[in-house]
Write a structure and sequence with these properties.
Blueprint: H1 5-18, H2 23-33, H3 51-60, H4 65-71, H5 76-85, H6 89-103, H7 109-118, H8 122-142
Helix pairs in contact: 1-2, 3-6, 3-8, 4-6, 4-7, 5-6, 7-8
């Protein structure tokens, strides 16, 4: 595909950094780069995170529970309490996610992915969210 010069570098950056998987998201990114959209309905980062997404992410990135907790704003003392309460790593992370959604004004997919990315678990978290969304969509279609 041939893109205007001013978009080419931005598109390469987006494709590399975020591994966009659909043409719709690529088109959305192009419109953002061109300043043609204020806020896109296709952008997940500003969407409130769902319990199904949190469950999927907790299972996918459980080994990074402590780092993710730190990046979500919990201190080491709070994390030690979660460690004492729960043996399973995914349960610890679910408890952290629950507390985070309670204390955060808006717990969004973007904020969750940012914390996971900083903890070197961004790709796994993104894949888990996409999988959770795919399962939800399939379930809605069956109803």
């Amino acid at each position: 595909a041939h893109h205007p010069k001013f978009l080419t570098g931005f598109i390469k950056h987006i494709e590399h950094e975020y591994k966009l998987r659909s043409d719709l998201l690529l088109i959305d990114a192009m419109f953002h780069a061109a300043g043609l959209l204020q806020r896109s309905p296709l952008t997940m980062s500003d969407v409130d995170v769902t319990p199904l997404q949190l469950l999927a992410v907790a299972k996918a990135v459980r080994s990074k529970w402590k780092e993710i907790g730190l990046y979500l704003g919990f201190d080491l003392e709070e994390l030690a309490e979660y460690e004492e309460k729960r043996v399973k790593l995914s349960d610890r992370l679910l408890d952290i996610f629950h507390a985070w959604t309670q204390r955060e004004e808006r717990a969004t997919v973007g904020k969750l992915l940012e914390a996971c990315t900083k903890a070197s678990a961004g790709t796994a978290a993104q894949n888990a969210i996409e999988g959770a969304d795919d399962r939800k969509s399939a379930k809605e279609l069956r109803c």
